[in-house]
């Protein structure tokens, strides 16, 4: 079964008052400018992550909140910029004021067990606003805490580590580096196994700046062009892609694309089904932005320990009619082509564009996807063992995460947010693609063919 609606669940969370956690030792007071890749307009937001852990009898009566609170103060000695505040200067340039003001921490208890969350853990999580309380005045980008953490103990002995962090400070790989240091401190280490390196000047704009790519991910388009999705009646669901579903989708992959990745196939499928579900004008340009980790593209390499953003989001663009009516191979080629554009020069071109064009955000109406299935999110261990779920809670983007089911199979979890009627059409179209039959190409089903006649 590819999709599953969240199980209704309500519970009560008792929160202790929010605390400010400062570094355990004195840290340098200085100003640290972010890179121009950190400073992309599209990264000016806070991202929430949930890490869910089962109980572990070996930990006895240890309180995970107390363990993590103490570890956080120690980790901030090494990652002291997180204890500062962002300031905005000329040209919207962001700089970290390493003031040592600290981060927000909340201890909480919930009257629910992990088992009550259901067999398949998936976003959206019930009562998520209770699992990470939005402390009044804390959500801003400038002059706000850069981290908000809530550790909620469950009745079964498990706990949920929820965190909100500023995306300008780090991408998911920098985030994992920081949380890895936090888990090491929680288990008794005095120094992180990977020492953090700032060196954000490595990804600042060149002098003079040279924008060498068209960068359609930042195109300015009229409001009448492309999809503007109404945010009333939005439905948020997760869809599961295991070995059976991936095998079904690969039947539609043409011979010359057989070496494509699972991410490519799933993304082509999701983009196509989403477009059909939204019923756009056939001539609308539909944009898919693929967040690409560019660390492997640099020579000399980005230093080990660098925890800033090294990501960009090349665009795949297609007319709605072509996405809906052409075989899946058309969409797949667009996905592969967009990913292949990313190089060291591409990233430097983005940095130069940010510095010269007023730090634009991504094109309005774009669908954004990111593959987190190959990261070590599930392996992050505070001493209680591996997580049973770990990943962002940001429904407006498709963050693919990994889940190990009861059979031990690695399952890709894809969150989707659409208006109610569109979600129904999306699920129906996905079921059509996953139907266990012998089709070797994706033709034009009757319910889609009408799009070309509009």
Summarize the structure.
The protein is of the alpha+beta class and 454 residues long. The chain has ten helices and 18 strands.
Characterize the structure shown.
This protein is an alpha+beta fold. It has 2 domains: 3-200, Chloramphenicol Acetyltransferase, CATH 3.30.559.10; 216-453, Chloramphenicol acetyltransferase-like domain (Chloramphenicol Acetyltransferase). Helix content is 24%, strand content 22%. The chain is built from 10 helices and 18 strands. It has helices at 64-78, 128-131, 172-186, 243-250, 262-278, 320-325, 328-340, 344-356, 420-434, 446-449; strands at residues 3-4, 13-15, 19-21, 30-33, 46-53, 85-88, 94-98, 103-110, 147-153, 159-166, 234-241, 285-293, 311-312, 315-319, 367-371, 389-392, 398-404, 410-419. The strands form 3 sheets. Strands 1, 11, 12, 13, 14, 15, 17 and 18 form an 8-stranded mixed sheet that branches. Strands 2, 3, 5, 8, 9, 10 and 16 form a 7-stranded mixed sheet that branches. A 3-stranded antiparallel sheet has the order 4-7-6, with no helix packed on it. Strand 8, helix 2 (128-131) and strand 9 form a beta-alpha-beta unit. Helix 1 (64-78) packs across helix 3 (172-186), helix 5 (262-278) packs across helix 7 and helix 5 (262-278) packs across helix 9. The chain is globular and about 60 Å long. The protein starts with a strand and ends in a 5-residue tail after the last helix. The model is unreliable at 1-6 and 439-454 (pLDDT under 50).
